[in-house]
Amino acid sequence: MQFRSDNAGPAHPKVIEALAQANDGYAPGYGAEAAMADVTARIRQIFEAPEAAVHLVATGTAANSLALATLAQPWQTIFCTPAAHIQEDECNAPEFYTGGAKLTLVGEGDKFTAEELRAAMEAEEVRGVHGPQRGPVSITQTTELGRVHSLDEIAAIAEVAHGYGQPVYVDGARLANAVASLGCTPAEMTRKAGVDALSLGGTKNGCVGVEAVVFFDPEKSWEFQLRRKRGAHLFSKHRYLSAQMAAYLAGDLWLDLANAANANCARLAEGLRVLDGVSLLHEPQANALFAELPRDMHRRLMEAGAAYHLWGVAESEVERDGPPILARFVCDWSLPEAEIDRFLQVAAD
Amino acid sequence: MQFRSDNAGPAHPKVIEALAQANDGYAPGYGAEAAMADVTARIRQIFEAPEAAVHLVATGTAANSLALATLAQPWQTIFCTPAAHIQEDECNAPEFYTGGAKLTLVGEGDKFTAEELRAAMEAEEVRGVHGPQRGPVSITQTTELGRVHSLDEIAAIAEVAHGYGQPVYVDGARLANAVASLGCTPAEMTRKAGVDALSLGGTKNGCVGVEAVVFFDPEKSWEFQLRRKRGAHLFSKHRYLSAQMAAYLAGDLWLDLANAANANCARLAEGLRVLDGVSLLHEPQANALFAELPRDMHRRLMEAGAAYHLWGVAESEVERDGPPILARFVCDWSLPEAEIDRFLQVAAD
Amino acid sequence: MQFRSDNAGPAHPKVIEALAQANDGYAPGYGAEAAMADVTARIRQIFEAPEAAVHLVATGTAANSLALATLAQPWQTIFCTPAAHIQEDECNAPEFYTGGAKLTLVGEGDKFTAEELRAAMEAEEVRGVHGPQRGPVSITQTTELGRVHSLDEIAAIAEVAHGYGQPVYVDGARLANAVASLGCTPAEMTRKAGVDALSLGGTKNGCVGVEAVVFFDPEKSWEFQLRRKRGAHLFSKHRYLSAQMAAYLAGDLWLDLANAANANCARLAEGLRVLDGVSLLHEPQANALFAELPRDMHRRLMEAGAAYHLWGVAESEVERDGPPILARFVCDWSLPEAEIDRFLQVAAD
Amino acid sequence: MQFRSDNAGPAHPKVIEALAQANDGYAPGYGAEAAMADVTARIRQIFEAPEAAVHLVATGTAANSLALATLAQPWQTIFCTPAAHIQEDECNAPEFYTGGAKLTLVGEGDKFTAEELRAAMEAEEVRGVHGPQRGPVSITQTTELGRVHSLDEIAAIAEVAHGYGQPVYVDGARLANAVASLGCTPAEMTRKAGVDALSLGGTKNGCVGVEAVVFFDPEKSWEFQLRRKRGAHLFSKHRYLSAQMAAYLAGDLWLDLANAANANCARLAEGLRVLDGVSLLHEPQANALFAELPRDMHRRLMEAGAAYHLWGVAESEVERDGPPILARFVCDWSLPEAEIDRFLQVAAD
Question: Of the given ranges (A145-159, A278-292, B112-126, C249-263), which has the lowest mean pLDDT?
């Protein structure tokens, strides 16, 4: 009954197999291996972007920080939500990599509207050099609260950002889940909606540790590569990154896994929705569910070994009486349906 | 009719005279001149802190950034208000000097309560290394909106900060105006209320360009000095900084000037308060007044040559019809009463 | 005939197998997995340091930069050789991670004597805040030119560094090869000789991508962990790092592989030494050989497909007439003896 | 008998007078005051560069660090001499401001030849992203050892730098002394010789604390201004910087003062040259003299109150027997001839 995070699950067997197959004799390193050329070609195809620059790193934070540092200047501010991973979960890595850019928080949670963004961007930079200057806009797709931006929402955000001459970056640690959820093409959800750069996450969706950073305009490619090396994120034995990514994208495994994870979450939601005292924060659109559960239900689940995060409160809080407590349940592709059903049964008892 | 900023006015003649007197033959530099020892002794006396470390820089942003960088780690977040000079007016200098620390905005304007601070500090650092770690608390006294923290407010804030093991820094660009306003001793308003470090501004209150940074615990003194040098803020001809500060503090000139500025502001407030259509944002407590004025009143004043900042809107907005517009009026010590009265007369016409 | 680098070869099958075995169901991440506790215990045992802090990263540059940033202050200078990887091969990563510390180059090549170090350290910091302050000493073992510091050399260097209150760091990307070469214990070569912190490389010696950073004084552990997270080097699926390292250290595989690589290099040296026109830069002590070869010999070898680096000159230089050209030949553990012999035969023809 | 530094002397009375005159009522700040426009026009005229960007800061280290940070990328290396102020005397300020660029030391002392520069630049950046990338070239004119680059030397250096697509920066803390020494025009020594950017020092030559930074290509102006603000080096009461610089440049006061300082140094050299046991390191070309003096001569001079720096040894060394000791003697414009003669008399006794 593992709902703690999609990075607690295993890698897909095909990814492990690809690592073993890549382990064959000598190979050039640092991305010069043949497999990387294949990865680049495949990602360009997926995003219908034949000129795109494609580079690999091993962690999502590296992808976000290096991409934003390439897009932002140190005297700028990056527009994101208060719930953004770059704000909440990276221990100031974006500030470190950008050389001290600021993050301006827009909206109240995991999304902002184009109008909220416009107001925030309009408020900056009215006094010459004194305040932070306007910088890139960063959104997360799938969001940190398990929601998905619609194509229209992304396009409207991009229009505002571009109106101020700023690029749009998508933290795509769970990009696959969003594509699966929307049923659109990857290009429609990104490049065609006005996105300028993105990360395509593998780690949370069946890989060992690999994320692709994609710039649709390849002009920034060399600077990114220098930043990646300077940040100590260039792998000498790079073949083990490209092998993962190649296996992940082959035959649309990435979307199959995302569909599986999303389906798991939908099954969980269906079961929880009908229980007394349970209320969903919002309809899950991908592989994460946020729901308030009565405290005795939490106690039963935890005793039975269910693993998940209470949201914003300590676990000890469950022991006390009080109102329902919000929790996050993340489903990965490997979660057995029987485990979901067992969880629901314990919850219902 | 100059209400634009207290840094638009002249230096006090005694400060200029001190510069001329300091210009006498050879002298050691870099703070080793005799005058700096006098400045240190005087500031220790003022704050009743015989061990305090005292160092001079030429700008308020340097004072804030260097002090906070000495108190904070790059992986921490500094707690301040949304209106804080360090957030709004320093083009990311704090992020630069700290090596990428974050600023967490507490409250809605220029002040936060101890309870708001506690909630914000409590929310951080619940997940090990992942989020930003708790860092120093920074308040501004006199605030950016012309208000003054009471001794109780400061003590309550310091108690919360210290409860989390974090120091309290006071951006004292207008510290003199607050001391004058409260009628307390400088020590009561700072060290005795729990403040750990502060800047004592000279630039906005009669100096050419000098700010003292004071650490009540001298342990951080050497690190500050290295950071000041590395930040290119150590003056070779340092005597011209210490001469200013010595003249500023001699015979309590600094408080006389602050009282004069505050009195100017009170006179302005008295006159504006009674005019039709004018409403004060809050009672001015020091030398800055925020008030909403009807648009035709703004037009009359600007035509007559009054200089002040509209708050958050472009000057062109005045030409259109609409509701009253908020403006900031800052009074410095040198403002002639006749100018205030002329301003009020134009406003009243 | 692959002598280009020890990061061009494959991982050892046991390491790949360990990755596959680690891929079993759900596991805590970020180093909280059970395997990491085993790795820590094993490394403490190897270095006879029951209190040591042990952390994993995926690249050698990350290990060096994060460790040095933890040991150095931004206003200090790190003492290293002109050939040091941190100086020559990391695109300013140490400067980035330390926040702008300087590197002072001591000696002429890959080693410096204790006396050269003393002279360099003595020359710094004679003028208060003005110059860079003395910082940590960094040596590489095995060096970038394939040599090994003796225990006495390390002890003498450490004595000088400690005399100035500075720690000694060892870039141990090829630490295993040095231990194998000296025939001492890992503890004798490091902790007992005065080393304060080190990296223990896996990537160049049979792993996919993993390096351990070891601090004998665990006081710096938490700061290192914050820096690792902020540098985006903390793996969520950390189990795949600990699995590699566990397999690498199990049954002294790490030393077996180093011995194999060193033996390959010795075989190559034996064969090259006797050829006309070939001169060795110095006796190889580990797995890298530097030798001058006649240009026609280079031409024959390259035509036959031998892969290695010319040292400091472009490959096109081989086509011209001229004096012998220096080249670097690195042997990894996987190099077949038959390939070495074939290389020697081509060279001799 | 003050030969310690040209920053130990007073400001010229006209500069102090200008400060007093600038202290007249309200004025816009941050460089928007009318006097700054005059300064810009005057500097453009002096360098025959009608498009040049001109900005003021208060310290030489700020000028160097901000200018180099504007010209260099963090992954580059700046080429300078081992004696360069940016290497030896700025506590890593260039590394801080550039975000971690490296300094590559060329030559043995205070100058390098174009050929030495070419060799150093050629050696970098031969391996893609791995090493530091080539960056700007920085020379000091007058050098830290009191020598002056000839126009031909500068032109040859610039040709090499430009051949690699890199700009040339001149640390001109003592630019005036070099112009006075060479008897050329400021434009001939800089822009016409291929210099791209420079600092024009005032602090060491009669000002209180002001340096101009000049970019002949104004494209970098806005970035410099953002960096200056972010570095806390933008003065609110900027009029006191522009007043100094205006007075300094008016009627060629800057060159008059440099000529006076240089003449003082020549008088000192004439007197010292003929004394037994004294040897000059090289012919002084500006206002600094380096000479070896017998230890008893040092003792006599110090007892008599002469102030100057021993070069690289502690003052206590003078008390012991031994060979002559090198010392630096810097003459400023205000040094009375009688003091020089008294010094020479004590030395000769």
Answer: B112-126
Interface membership of B229 toward D (CB under 8 Å): yes
Whether D24 and D228 have beta carbons less than 8 Å apart is answered as: no
Dihedral in degrees, nearest 10, Cα atoms B189, B191, B196, B201: 50
Across A294-312, average pLDDT? 95
Tokens at residue C59, please? 């690249």
pLDDT at D13 exceeding the cut of 80: yes
Q: Are D333 and D261 a contacting pair, CB within 8 Å?
A: yes
Give residue C127's pLDDT.
74
CA distance D239 to D219: 25
Least confident interval from A280-284, C54-58, C256-260: A280-284
Instruction: Test C99 with D101 for CB contact under 8 angstroms.
Output: no
The total number of residues shown for chain B amounts to: 349
Closest chain B C-alpha to A92 CA, distance in angstroms: 6
Segment C62-73 shows an average pLDDT of: 98
Residue B124's pLDDT is: 77
Cα distance between residue A292 and residue D108, in whole Å: 71
Residues C205, C246 contacting (CB under 8 angstroms): no
Cβ contacts of residue A167 below 8 Å, gap of 6+? A71, A136, A137, A161, A196, A197
Which chain A residue's Cα is nearest to B123? A312
Neighbours of chain D (3+ CB pairs under 8 A): A, B, C
Instruction: State how far the Cα of B37 lies from the Cα of B32, in Å rounded to an integer.
Output: 8
Angle at the Cα of D296 (from D291 to D301), degrees rounded to 5?
A: 70
One-letter amino acid identity for A43? I
Q: How close D127 gets to chain C, by Cα (Å)?
A: 9
Rounded alpha-carbon distances, angstroms, from residue C123 to A111, A173, C104, C106, C120: 56, 50, 11, 12, 5
**Residues pairing with D133 in the sheet:** D76
**pLDDT score for B295:** 97
% chain D with pLDDT above 70: 99
What φ, ψ does residue D167 adopt, rounded to 5°? Answer: -80, 165
Are the beta carbons of B39 and B249 closer than 8 angstroms? Answer: yes
Among A75, A227, A228, the residue with its CB nearest the CB of D230 is A75
At residue A125 the predicted structure's pLDDT band, cuts being 50, 70 and 90, is: low
Nearest-angstrom CA–CA distance, D29 and D40: 16
Cα Dmax for chain A: 63
Please say if the pLDDT value at position C126 is more than 70: no
What pLDDT, on the 0 to 100 scale, is given for residue B14? 98
Q: Rounded to the nearest 10 degrees, what angle do helices B239-249 and B13-22 cross at?
A: 140
Question: How far, in Å, CA of B89 to CA of B87, rounded?
Answer: 6
From residue C303, how far is each of C277, C335, D35 by CA, in Å? 19, 20, 71
pLDDT at position D285, please?
A: 97
The answer, for A282 touching chain D at a CB cutoff of 8 Å, is no
Average pLDDT over residues A20-41: 96
The token duo for C136 is: 């940590």
> Do the Cβ atoms of C92 and C69 come closer than 8 Å?
no
Give the pLDDT mean for C116-126: 88
Provide the greatest CA pair distance for chain C.
63
Q: For every residue of A177-230, which 3-state class applies, written as one string?
A: HHHHHHCCCHHHHCHHHCCCEEEEECHHHCCCCCEEEEECCHHHHHHHHHHHHH
**B208 phi and psi angles, rounded to 5 deg:** -80, -45
Distance CA(A312)–CA(A185), nearest Å, equals: 35
Inspect the interface and report whether the beta carbons of C100 and D103 lie closer than 8 Å: no
CB contact under 8 A, A208 and C19: yes
Any chain B CB within 8 A of the CB of C131? Answer: no
Contact A57, A213 (CB under 8 A): yes
* pLDDT tops 80 at residue B47: yes
